[in-house]
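User: Could you check the structure of this?
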Amino acid sequence: MFVASFGVVSPNTQISICHGFISRSLCSKFNARKHRSFCSLASDLNYLCLGGTIPAISSNHKVYDVVLKQSALVNEKLKSSGDLDVKLGTLSLLNEAYERCGEVCAHYSQTFYLGTLLTTPERRRAFWAINMWCRRTDELVDGPNASHITLMTLDRWESRLEDLFEGRPYDMFDAALSDTVANFPVHIQPFKDMIEGMRMDLKKWRYKNFDELYLYCYYVAGTVGLLSVPIMGIAPESQATTESVYNAALVLGLANQLTNILRDVGEDARRKRIYLPQDELAQAGLSDEDIFAGKVTDKWRNFMKSQIKRARMFFDEAEKGVTELSSASRWPVWASLLLYRQILDEIEANDYDNFTKRAYVSNAKKLIALPVAYARSVISPSRTSTLVKA
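Assistant: Sure, the predicted C-alpha cells are below.
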C-alpha cells in the first residue's frame, strides 16, 4: 500500500530481499526518489521493517484510493478558494459542543490536547471534534460496555456517521463534527476505515506478522493522520504533492500506534490481547505465555529493541512531511511528534518493562520539548525537500 517514504509501490513490482530495506523504483506520480529502500513481510501492505524473507503480494489500492479521495478534496478546496482557512459555526450550542469536545480531549488525550493549544482556534476546535468522534468509536470496543458491542452496533455507528456527514447529527458531539466536515475538506472514507478497525478488534486479538498488524494500525491510527491534514493545511509555498503530504501524515499515525502498542503490552495482555507480530515473537524465542507471564528477560529486551527501532524509523520518515504543513500547524505537530517519540525513550529507561510499568513523558520533559518543536516549526518548506514535485 503506502510506504514510509511517501510513495506508492506498483502492485506488480518485483522485490529482492535484503537486510533492513528493499530497493525498488516508486511510482513517478509521487516523484519519490528511485531506489529507496523498503521491505514488506507479506501480503497486504508495504512498510518499513528490519528485514524480511517473504515476497509481498501488494494491495496498494486500499490506502491509495483513500489518500487520493482525501487529497482530491483538498485540491478542489484550494482551487475554489485559494486557502483552507475557515470560520466554524458560532451558534452558542455549537460553541458548547466544541468546548465539551475540548474538555474530553484534555482529560483523556493530554499530549494531543497540548498540541492543539498551539494552533489557531478554528483548527483547535476541529481537532477536538475529530478526537471526540475517534474516542467514542474506540470506546465501542474498549469501553465498559464493550462486551455488549456487536458488528451490528458498528454498522449502526457507521450509518450515524453517514447521517452527520449529510448534516443530520444525533447529538451535540455529532453536531461539532458535522460542522467541522462541512467547513474542512475531510473525506468520509478514513472515518469508515477506522470503524473497520473496530470490527477487526472484535474478531482478531492476534496478528500473524507485521503485515497484518500494519493493516490494523492503518485502520485505527493511520486514518487519524489522513483526517488531520485538511485541518492542519499545507503550506502555500510547499513544492510537495498533496498525496505525498498525506502519505507523511499516514506514516506519523502508524508511528504513534506502534508506540501505543509497545507502551501498552502489559495492559493489553491483561485483556488477553497481543498486538505484536507472532512470527517475530517466535523468532525471538518468545510465546504468548511469556507475554502473559510478564517477566522482563534478555530475550524480551532484545525483542523490544528491534520493535522500538522500527517505530523510530517510522517517526524518522514522518518528520520529512511536517515541514510541508502550514506555518500555523507545524509547531503543534512537531510538539506531538517529539513527545510521542519520547515514549519509546521511556520504555528503554524502564529497562523494557512494559508489563508492569506504563511509560510516560513527564511534564518537565514536555516543557523542554516545546521550544525544540518551535525551533523546527519555523523552518519553511524547501525546494530540496524529499517530497518536492517534479
